[in-house]
Structures are given as C-alpha cells and as structure tokens.
Amino acid sequence: MQIAVMDIRRWGYNKISKYFYKDEKEKASFFIELAKLNSLNYDKKVSPYGFLNSWGSIKDRVDRYYQGMEYIVYDTNPFISNVKLDDLTKRKFRNTYESIMKNIGKDLNLSDSDIQIMSDLGLKLAYIDYDDSLLKIFTFYNTVLKWAFFTMQESNFSKNNLSFLSIISIMTYEDSEAFIKIINNSLV
Hints:
- The chain has 188 residues and is mostly helical.
- It has helices spanning 5-20, 24-40, 55-65, 67-76, 87-107, 112-124, 135-150, 155-159, 164-173, 176-186.
- The longest helix is centred in the middle third of the chain and has 21 residues, at 87-107.
- The two termini are 28 Å apart.
C-alpha cells in the first residue's frame, strides 16, 4: 500500500472537521456561523492577491492570533517583512492560498459557496480583532492552515521528526481534540 502526502492531508482535514462538527446538521450550522462573521466584516475588502499589501500593518496581530496564516505567508517569502513586495510574491501567495482552500473544500466535500465564504473569511480574520467569542473560528483556521503548511512538503515531516506511519498512528489513536492540540502546539 502506498500512501501519499495528499492522502494524509485529506485524512487530517477530515479528522480536524470532526472536532468542529459531527454531522451534516452541525456542519451547516458551523458554516452559517462562518458566513455570519464574514457578512459582519463586509467592509474588509481583501483578495488573496492583495492580501500581502498590508502585511506590515497586520503582521503583529497575525503573529499573536493567527499563526496558521503566518506560516502560509512566510512560506511564500520568508523575508517578506524585509523586502519590497513584488507581483511574483503576491501571485505565489494567491496561488498557494487558493489551492489550500480548494483542497480543503474538496476533502471536506464543501459546496462552492462554503469554499468561497471560508476563503474570504480566512483573509478577513487577519484584520479582525481577536476576542474569546472567536476562539472556535480562529482555532479552525489556525488548525487547517497549519495542517496545510505541514503537508505541503514531505520535508516538513522530517523537520518535526515524524514519519508517515507516526502521523497515521496519531490520526488513528488520538481523538480529534488531541489531534488539533498536536497540530497547534507541536508542528513547525
């Protein structure tokens, strides 16, 4: 049996989702919650291509509350805070972010509208002041983006001293809550 990073990623997204919703009714409720927050922040107009334009003003907030996004941004360009932003970097971020959202949507069997809401809100969260009422939503986004980052390259497994088998073991024997804690506290 051959296992690919893509299979591990899909299995991980499904394991993560089980923490936030157990069935289709809870899934619909969760995405209604995301849609409401997205609508409440209608004034924050941001696109994946233009997201990095304001990186200097949001990076401290992102560093404190939204580390999943920080991983994706610094994977795009590790020196983003010190270099002039160019179109290549903006395109790379856009392509990476859109690919992540499409993969999550496909792996979780989401509708196109749920994927779009999830994508829009994922960018807007970088501009939203954190409070405890948003803990569940920030946890969801931090977890899926960190998992996406971790599974982007096989080298990330070795950086964390993990193998495919150890990840499979964690996903098999740990519950969703423990898996989320591992992702948010252990993975680089």
